[in-house]
Amino acid sequence: IEKCFEHYNSTASVAYELLKADGTEVKFDVVQHG
User: Fold this and answer.
1) How far is CA 13 from the centre of its chain?
2) Inter-axis angle of helices 9-22 and 25-33, to 10 degrees?
3) pTM
4) How many CA atoms lie within 13 A of 15 on its CB side?
5) pLDDT confidence band for 18 (50 / 70 / 90)
6) Among the residues of the chain, which ranges form H helices?
7) Neighbour tally for 8: CB within 10 Å
8) Do the beta carbons of residue 32 and residue 2 sit within 8 Å?
9) C-beta separation of 33 from 22 below 8 A
């Protein structure tokens, strides 16, 4: 997952914080885009 965020620096940083606070549903969403 972290490798994914290297490509999405600004957006992923925010999305990562949101998915950590929200749970796993958003997590899977982000992983799919990666």
Assistant:
1) 7
2) 160
3) 0.29
4) 21
5) confident
6) 2-7, 9-22, 25-33
7) 15
8) no
9) no
